[in-house]
Predict the 3D structure of the following.
Amino acid sequence: MDRLDNTIRPYAWGSTTAIPELLGVAPSGEPQAEMWMGAHPGAPSRTARGTLVEVIGADPEGELGAAAVAKFGPRLPFLLKILAAGAPLSLQVHPNLAQAKEGYEDEERRGIPVDAGHRNYKDANHKPELICALTEFDGLCGFRDPDQAAELLAGLGVDSLKPYVDLLHAHPEDAALREVLTAVLSADPEDMARTVTEATAACARLGGEYAPYADIAHHYPGDPGVIAAMLLNFVRLQPGEALFLGAGIPHAYLSGLGVEIMANSDNVLRCGLTPKHVDVPELLRIVRFEAADPGVLRPEASPDGEEVYETPIDEFRLSRYVLPEGGAAHDLTRATPQILLCTAGSIRSGERELSPGQSVFVPAGEKAEVSGSGTVFRATVIV
């Protein structure tokens, strides 16, 4: 069992206080957006045996187990994070596995450098993800019913939004959503900036259900993503609740602290709320234009106290244990690799004492037990 020393990413949207408060350290004054736990080559966790990339590379079957290597290859297939949003992240969508492979191979064939600003596909993998709230957590997830989106836009009283309102009332639903998102992202930038400015003033004046969009616009003035965001469901998670983001689902995280787990990929296509490249034609190929309830997940408890967040993919499995003072120890030994992350209290795992924000990597088949008082998240795979 290896204690992990993890990198904190200082992205501009990160909170300056949330991760330091979790870790019990003084804020540096700089944004601290994500703490990465895993074997992503961009910022692998460090152990006493080397980086987790090096440890797994030296003995894939010994660290991951034969079944996991056979199914996912000789790499850890998930990345675990603590995410702290102090400002909205970009509005984005992720490809499915076939789309990722096709897009990656096409950009490789065209010789686009992996680090190029206009490159869409950094690898050939999909990126399903799950976010579990540690604090109240706001986000956008999936399309609203088009009639509801039309009502929201109409309520702003902005004349230049009326054509979008009319389109949203058209049928079929998928075509209406496609046409409006295409129109918003393809509009003349100066005209759209004026529309967003008018809409922002209306959101600030009206408050209530419009308040989140006024805040988004405060961070991204004039950005067409402000209007695109109003086509999506607003979701407020309470601690312990989660969202699963599958392929093609437009989403954005707005504020709060959470535990995030995803397939080990960097593939993101942006829809707005960003100064970065937005490839509208490729985005429209990937987005699933269907209205749906965002599907807030609550963990399903098993008899042994494990609370599992069920998802339809195998690259990761996230669960948690909420351990009471004086409770029995739980045997977590498993034939697959695991990362254990403490988020509250004081947890003992083997000879390791874990305080909030600390984590360990447990190789496949190695004895793992947790006890103490607090909350520990368990990340592993399904084989």
